[in-house]
Amino acid sequence: MTGAKQIRFDNLPGWHREDHQKAYSAFHASASYLLDNPPKSHGDEVDIDALLACAQKALELGPELGADQARNFFEDHFELANLDEEGFVTGYFEPSFEGSRTQSADYPVPLHTRPNDLVMVTKDQDISHLSSETSFARKLDDNSLTYHVNRSEVMDGALDGQDLELVWLKNWVDAFVIHIQGSARIDLHDGSIMRVAFDGKSGHPYCSLGKRLIETGIFTKDTITMDKLVAYLRDQGQESLDLLRQNPSYIFFKEQKDLPLEYGPLAAAQIPLLPMRSLAIDRNCRTFGIPVWIETCLPQGKNALVPCKQLFFAHDTGSAIQGEARGDLFIGTGAEAGSFAGRIKQQARFTLFLPKRSR
């Protein structure tokens, strides 16, 4: 692992002020999922057996520990690796929209399930002709891989008639927000609630509409937020469709059942997201499941920033999350969480909690 140096817990800024009980409870909540779906070690060179041993120990200790016990759990089972480079964090959330299981004039826009010919790319497959971002691709009859349909083609009906519609929404902007966040809670018109989560993407490189609107002078880096971007798209009416077509990456979803309402959706690590504890990372650099200490400032009120120094857990990933010192904080569900998440664009420092290797 490059760009990291070992430090002591006594030298970790803010560690003594952390709510160690809540941090431990968050790790315990993920423990059984880690054991059921062991992650692969990536650039942080995590000893997976040691990580799973930490998860097993947490299950044996139970979901709640005293403050001192909880602090000792982390200090006894992990060692610290501080990343030298300056990092950056953003926020994401689980949006909530109205929808229907059946198409109608009020609900004309679908979210789609994954097509049968869309497969996850493995390391032994040649995708040199595709984007470096490609993690899913269409498998052809000769077993070669190519891009699947892009967003513009889907909007023109390329998936119609294939029985891939999972749920129907009011408009393409609602669908776009769900695609960006990778999950959603859908309030169905029959009064029930549906949870949907990421299940693959078309393989095309992601194009940020926010960056496009900054380049054209609609926003600046200082003025753009997710709320403002979505409001702008809604104000454009039919013209917003032309903007949406500029991002060719298209996301597919699956329904998630039996998730506790206090949790977010199931993350890429197959762990339910925990508000203000789960973190999306670059899965090429970080290993799912490890604790990550983040030192940053978060927005409060209209213009204020307040220090945040606490433990998050690498549960998720995302197309826009690239680099060793890059993270996306899961805030929660609904409009208020979305407004807060959209304002988070902060410099940060990262310290990895690496499980101590088996002796």
Please specify the SSE layout and strand pairing.
Elements: E1 4-7, H1 20-36, H2 48-61, H3 67-77, E2 78-83, E3 87-94, E4 96-100, E5 109-112, E6 118-120, E7 136-139, E8 145-146, H4 151-155, E9 165-169, H5 172-181, E10 183-188, E11 193-201, H6 209-215, H7 226-235, H8 239-244, E12 251-256, E13 278-281, E14 291-300, E15 304-317, E16 326-333, H9 335-342, E17 345-355
Parallel strand pairs: 3-16, 4-10, 13-15
Antiparallel strand pairs: 1-2, 2-17, 3-17, 4-9, 5-9, 6-7, 7-8, 10-11, 11-12, 13-16, 14-15, 14-17
Helix pairs in contact: 1-2, 1-3
EC number: 4.2.2.n1
GO molecular function: hydrolase activity, hydrolyzing O-glycosyl compounds; peptidoglycan lytic transglycosylase activity
Enzyme class: lyase
Q: How would you characterize this protein structure?
A:
It contains 9 helices and 17 strands. The protein is α+β, with helices and mostly antiparallel strands. It has 2 domains: 180 residues, RlpA-like domain (Barwin-like endoglucanases); 163 residues, Barwin-like endoglucanases (Ribosomal Protein L25, Chain P, Beta Barrel), CATH 2.40.240.50. A 6-stranded mixed beta barrel has the order 3-16-13-15-14-17. Strand 10 and strand 11 form a beta hairpin. Helix 1 crosses helix 2. It is globular and about 60 Å long. The chain starts with a strand and ends with a strand.
Helix residue percentage: 10-25%
Shape-level CATH architecture of the largest domain: Beta Barrel
What is the chain-wise order of helices and strands?
EHHHEEEEEEEHEHEEHHHEEEEEHE
Q: What structural class do helix, strand and pairing data support?
A: alpha+beta
CATH superfamily of the largest domain: RlpA-like domain
Give the overall average pLDDT. 92
> Radius of gyration from the CA trace?
21 Å
Instruction: Report strand %.
Output: 25-35%
CATH C-level label of the largest domain: Mainly Beta
Q: Which strand order do you get reading across the main beta sheet?
A: 3-16-13-15-14-17
Number of helical runs?
Answer: 9
Low-confidence stretches: none
Protein name: peptidoglycan lytic exotransglycosylase
GO cellular component, one term: outer membrane
EC number: 4.2.2.n1
Enzyme class: lyase
